Hints:
Chain A has 520 residues and is an alpha/beta fold. In chain A, 31% of the residues lie in helices and 22% in strands.
Amino acid sequence: MSGKREIHGVSMIPFGLVAGFADGQEIRIAELSESGFCFRTVDEIGEVEKFRVCFYDGLKCSEVVGNEARENCDLYTEVAIDRFEIEARVDDELGIPVYVYSVFVNREKYRECARELILRYDRFVRLKLECEDGELAEALTGYPAKEDEKFEGNFEDQKESWFGEKKGWQKREKWNTGSCSGNDFAESVKNDLECEITAEEQIEMRTENGTNCIAAGIPENEEKAENKIELAAELDRPELYERYLSMKFCDFMDWYWKENRAEKLGEQMPIPERIYVGNAFCHLLFPGKERLFEILEKAESEGLAVTITSSYLREFILEPVEKMLDELVEWCKNRKTSLEIAANDWGLLELLRERKEWKKEKEVLVPCMGTLLNKRKKDPRMGYKQGETGYFRENSLNAEFYRTYLRDTFGIRRYEWESCGYRQKFPEGKNSIHVPFYQTNTSQYCTLYAMCKNGERGKQELPESCPGYCREKVFLYPKHLKMVGRYNSLFALDESAVSGMADIEMWKSQEIDRLVVNLL
Amino acid sequence: MKITAGLGSIDEYVRYVEAGADEFFCGYVPYEWNKKYGTVLPLNRREVLGINVQIGAESELKILAALVRKYGKPVHLTFNSLYYTPKQYPEIADLLRRCMKLGFSSFIIADPALLIYLKNNGIRCEIHLSGEAAEVNSRMIDVFDRLDVSRLIFHRKNSFADMESVIRHEREKGSSGVYEFEAFALNELCQFSGAFCNSLHCDEMGHLCRVPYKIGKVKGKREKKEEHEETERLILRTESTVKDANDEHSADKTKEEDEERMYDADGYLCGETGCGLCALYQLRKTGITHLKLVGRGNYVDFMEKDIRNLKTALDILEHMDTEEEYIMKMKRTLFPYGCSGLCYYREMNPVAGKIT
């Protein structure tokens, strides 16, 4: 066989941009032009009745904004072709003989779609090769690339702009956005609902949160626990450990809100009844053993429940962690209580599982699924993402078989989530939500350490003795993204979780039973 | 150690085999998946449609299967997104079955829930635990042993000592443990970690980690005097560190013409975006069995050169007795005018940073 005519098209446009079917067989369009296309197969195909060519429309949706419009935007235009001419030849350029088919099409719809796709692909390739990422995003999505040049002077000023008095959120407008709304990414769409929390409601919340039990497992009074939201504060770094130990908890919380330029926000929140101790993202920010037990004892004396947060575990810290777990078990036994452990490492879950199995006793260290193990797409630019963004609402924990495995294997009944700028569907069970920041990226080799020690963020190494650069330094990001590089991670702010933080009913309606505040 | 190279298209298979690749990994995303999920819920970590990083279409997979039969270099398929949604697990299971019928039996997976789904549903295949899965330690791998993982791919930020300890732990288990261990060797050194990277990687926007940033202070005007002084000291120290680093770089840095000469006539420099070649001696010592060469979507000519260079480095390694000898010979051969300095394994720096 030998082809008499040529397609004269663009070769190897990615399959994601143009796909094809020869009757039921999925085929790769190896060459595309307005007059036809080529594809290849390892076996000779019989007579084809109909082709279907699927042209990607995604990259032309930049002018479409808003959830509804994006969700209704079909990603592909499919063109059925039942009148065509086909020629075949055998080619062995690949290293084995394959059948190469040239299909000549004379249909206007096909011609139009092929022309548009080739133009869009060409434009996309040029943007990729010639432009900065921001410019490309601007061209394709309307992303405001010029805003990438505007920064705050320091992290404190940034917090002032996020939480301070000049910020409009404290008027208690309910913003119809993000985690606290029905929409996914309708940023800046405001409705008129007023949601003032009354003084009576605040008092009621404080009274309800009056448990004195440090135990974090199944509450003794399940019925009571069902209808309330527990508030927790996250102590995630040495400065906070020290500060907490130096003053009464209620004074600490006053200081905490004030220090973070969030006094008004703090006035609307009840006093937390639980503290999280430790950092989910950096193993170096976990308190030393002595400090940890001091905190536990102080928390016990103040009637605060405790969740210990452990980050990923490097191989070389497994042994000290095992020793620490043994000491925590002992500590709990002496007090006939239990502690919750927010695990962010599969190895830690395994260590906890073994302790439970070997000792055949009641679980005193109760694991919950930490943020780093609870995966999800998170990005402050999510509002510019094309496609059916409603799919973001679920993740693997929405699958019952997975929750069953976690419960039966590790005893996990609680999951740690983050408010991340869009609506999430939380599964049955116990759900804690961390507000108002969400992590997007983490590096075990600290980026801040690399910058401060080696002068470049990419020149990373495992810090052997970290001087704690993160006490004084951060990575600042363009103001419009509302994000920050803190410790070894990047975080972004969910503004809706600031304005909606005190909206207990809203959290309850989303199956959340614990709110964990961390203002970084 | 074997070379496991990324494959962006079946057209590259034979070229890469001839260059020295021992096996391959690639992605296959059927049209129905793209149509339904686009890049919102991708099937693997190459979360783009507009770049040739996947093997397109089932018809291409059939050709690839025939190539594997003829040339004998296996291909592992990547299904390594960090998570999927409940409805996707049965869809992926069907897809895996289809791929297995075509002759592909090994899959790179990162989502623990997918491993559990496959086990629960009796889908038996060879599983490579992706370097994007999680932090790696010997107790973590105990969990994944029970989920029938046969190869562990270390992420980009493991130390030699940690890798060695994990491998020793597994080998002590005998046949019940993981028996193959893969480590990154060339290209695409990320500043953050794949397992903890939750931001978008899509056609229409660059990676979040590449958005402009600058170093700044935590505190502003409210800083107390002593804190202010401490911060200033830190900034001074940082600036001098940066200056020292730059000076050191300048001192060691090859002259501009040498920098240009680092690149070949085609503009190629081995390991320009990440390199672990100096670490091969140590990686072999730790028990690594496979070296990952990433770069799907890169220029094919460059990938071919990468494979050849990695092969050359392995050949040199075969004939050298000491680490110093290996590094010196390898750098003289592959980097006569200096290297990118973007080291995967920075603990190698004392010997690796110098230009011979």
